[in-house]
Amino acid sequence: MAEILMPKATAVWLIDNTALSFDQIARFCGLHHLEVKGIADGDVAAGVRGLDPIGAGQLSREEIARAEANSDYDMQAQTPKHADMMGRKRKGPRYTPLSRRQDRPDAIAWMVRNHPEVPDSQIAKLIGTTKTTIDAVRSRTHWNTSNIKPVDPVSLALCSQIDLDAVVDLAAAKKRKAEEKAALERGEDLDTLRAASEAKAAQEAAEEAQADEEKSLRDIANKPVDAASVFGAFKEKPAETE
After folding, report:
1. Are residues 108 and 190 in the same domain?
2. d(C-alpha 38, C-alpha 58), whole Å
3. Are residues 75 and 128 in the same domain?
4. Tell me: the pLDDT tens digits for 116-135?
5. With helix as H, strand as E and coil as C, how does 7-50 read?
6. pLDDT tens digit sequence for 131-172
7. What pTM was estimated for this model as a whole?
């Protein structure tokens, strides 16, 4: 059976406009029958406007009539005429707001430095940029190269952490499979190769953590000191009056 669009709104319409039982409406909308009863009593989905499933192309009047005549009959939803267009996703780079586009070179530099295994096509989709810009940042021929600083794209709000992890994990898996295939062709032991890969990954994680710690220390050291706040603690307390 086709998935129902806005099941609660559809249940509201069916309760108000048909003689169907709560169980029939619950089965059709994919809800619990007590939830449907709550909708009828006004305890659930209060203020939700009913959605006409006939007008939406998900149900026919004949199907409703058959269900009203037989309380054991389960209505079958129809697939909307343009359902394939509704679920179609646009391909290509994601849209980036104008206020964030100036940050993309920094994010590209971070990806190129920290995850060279990620292909340019995935970086372009993740950040919403082009391969030409990625090549320019990588080869340091970008017009603003002197001001580009590697920054995590998540902290720049150019992508989510989930999307970034998915892209990195996929690229790492492809790289690992390619290395294992090459090792097999050379006659090497896969267990030894995997152990070496794990050790390398642990070393890279430790180096990255150390780099982050050093950066934090540098930021603290370079932070300007407020003289008033430092010497304010040494001011003499006012004499107490007896």
Report:
1. yes
2. 23
3. no
4. 999 999 999 998 889 999 99
5. HHHHHHHHHHHCCCCHHHHHHHHCCCHHHHHHHHHCCCCCCCCC
6. 999 999 999 999 999 999 998 888 888 888 889 989 988 988
7. 0.43
